[in-house]
Amino acid sequence: MKFETANPLSMATPIEAITYCIPTFHATPWMGRGISHLAQVFESGDLMSFERLTTIYNLPHTSRYSYIQLKSFLHTSNKDSRRETKDTRELSIWEQTGITAKLPQTFKPLSGCYRLILPYQPLSDSTPAHQWEMDLQTPITERQWSNITSSTRKLIKSAPLIEQHQKTIYRWYMVPLRIHKLYPNASPTCWRCKQEKGSVLHIWWKCPRLIRYWEDTQKIIADTTTIQLPLDPKAFLLLDIPRETPTQARKLMYHILLTAQKLIARLWKTTEAPSIPTLIQDIDNQAIYETSFSKARNRTSCSSSMWEQWRVWKTANKQHVSRQQPNQTQRLDAERGWVASTSR
Ligand SMILES: [Zn+2]
């Protein structure tokens, strides 16, 4: 296999790697004397003499041949100056670490990478948490964030719903405003209402075409849990729901809210707003999944009363769920008016 090197070689090049350039290079004596990287054999920009290396590193005389090999290689590979001069490029943080770190025999590369990355925290104003706080214009404490990020995993078994929650928290979705920043030719306007800038908060919450959808979702939560959740994106998008809320009610809220979010994502880049009947159908699927999950493990689901409550409510409103509409516009209008006409 032909092996091509950088020209000139990085000073962070391990001495052991010279064998890829010079197959007969005997690196072991060099490494045994503590010479691990190319930078160590340079002084004032030039390759040290063999005598100097012997003095500093106690390099054995038997390594003179490998020294000549290295010198010749550096001389011929440095096409610009034809000298074995030092590469003066600024070293990356990885290269600097490679040169300066005294790595123990038990060094684990992946752990080492994490140790390097962790001190370099992203700027606080670029974190999703900070951006949500700016959008919602309210501080969110670390404890609240801890509850938000761990809440769904404790109460929900559906991986797609947990994934949905994580994607929302971490602002994973590419909204028009963000796409516009990357590609200036792309429109920054909301693709749904075509009126306002498509920010994260607009696309998920503020868009006029979603207002009724979220109001109806709030009504479903109130009907099925008897809890009036405030119409607040912190609760509806991040799932910041008071801890004192009974567990089963909180769990049903998570199912309803995350499914509602999923439907918005499902209609991404379309002008359509999600429909309440589709939301109900999807939550039904969650009920079937959770019930089957419990049965498969011969467990009496502690959620069975919760889903029973859901089914009772759904049956009571069945005729409205299956209402047929002649065309899409009328269907969407009717769906938006559905909860209002049946439950208010
Ligand atoms: Zn909009």
Write a structural description:
The structure is a single chain. The protein is mainly α and 344 residues long. It has 2 domains: 15-117, no CATH class; 126-343, no CATH class. The chain has 18 helices and 2 strands. The chain has helices at 18-21, 28-32, 50-57, 64-77, 93-100, 109-117, 128-136, 142-155, 159-169, 176-182, 200-206, 208-225, 233-236, 247-266, 276-296, 304-316, 318-321, 328-343, and strands spanning 42-43, 46-47. It has a two-stranded antiparallel sheet with strand order 1-2. Strand 1 and strand 2 (46-47) form a beta hairpin. It binds zinc ion. Zinc ion (ZN) binds next to loops.
Helix/strand layout:
Layout: H1 18-21, H2 28-32, E1 42-43, E2 46-47, H3 50-57, H4 64-77, H5 93-100, H6 109-117, H7 128-136, H8 142-155, H9 159-169, H10 176-182, H11 200-206, H12 208-225, H13 233-236, H14 247-266, H15 276-296, H16 304-316, H17 318-321, H18 328-343
Antiparallel strand pairs: 1-2
Helix pairs in contact: 9-14, 12-14, 12-18, 14-15, 15-16
Bound molecules: zinc ion (ZN).
Biased composition (Polar residues): 319-331
Region (Disordered): 319-344
Overview in brief:
It contains 18 helices and two strands. It is an all-alpha fold.
Class from helix and strand fractions? mainly alpha
Mean pLDDT: 82
Q: What is the terminal-to-terminal distance?
A: 75 Å
Order of helices and strands: HHEEHHHHHHHHHHHHHHHH
Biggest sheet strand order reads 1-2
| Number of β-strand runs | 2
Portion in beta strands: under 5%
Major sheet summary line = 2 strands, antiparallel
- Please, how many domains? 2
Shape: elongated
- Alpha-carbon Rg, integer: 32 Å
Bound molecules: zinc ion
Counting H and I runs of at least 4 residues, what is the number of helices? 18
Low-confidence stretches: 323-344
Helix content: 55-70%
